[in-house]
Amino acid sequence: MIARKVMLLGEIGVGKSSLARRLVFDKFEFDYKPTIGVDVYRFEVEATAQRPAMSLIVWDTDGNFGDAIFKHIYMKEAAAALIIGDLSRAPTLDTMVRLGNGFAEAFPGRHIGYVINKTDLAAEPDAVPLPTGLTLPGVSLMRTSAKTGWRVKEAFVHAADSIARRAL
């Protein structure tokens, strides 16, 4: 089975750890414990006709790195980045765009997935306006809820599919 590194990037409190824990343990914890440095998780993605089985090594980074993350050793050999924003905090969506552009510049050809989390907080999550730049060619956009589990696994499976297509 091939293993590929996926980075979780975004501001503090957008739900990076909650998404990783929902994915791996299928749990949501109401106690917020900020990540210090990085936590690493493993998630096995089953094979399909288009993609071999893949082990995603998910690196959950703290939100204090900002743009400096692209020069950090944590990023070495990253095949993809899921960049997380909080639907209820518009500035975090602008940060997503900036981090996405930084990742694309530092790691051309790698998968970038924008994940707008906390959809459970909005009556109509699809009606929330998105910042300019979230609809770049080749960049995926997915809305999720770590609290309910809605579309969490799909965001990571989509990244695995993209990694396989790009032969990274």
Give a quick precis of the structure.
The chain has 168 residues and is of the alpha/beta class.
Give a structural overview:
The model has no long low-confidence stretch (mean pLDDT 87). The chain is 25% helix and 26% strand. Strands 2-3-1-4-5-6 form a 6-stranded mixed beta sheet. The protein contains 3 helices and 6 strands, in the order βαβββαββα. The protein is globular and about 40 Å long. The longest helix has 17 residues. The chain has one domain: P-loop containing nucleotide triphosphate hydrolases (Rossmann fold). β2 and β3 form a beta hairpin. With 168 residues, the chain is α/β, with parallel strands linked by helices.
What labels would you give this structure?
168 residues, alpha/beta, Rossmann fold, six-stranded mixed sheet, 3 helices, globular
Fold topology:
Elements: E1 2-9, H1 16-25, E2 38-45, E3 54-61, E4 78-86, H2 90-106, E5 111-117, E6 140-143, H3 152-166
Parallel strand pairs: 1-3, 1-4, 4-5, 5-6
Antiparallel strand pairs: 2-3
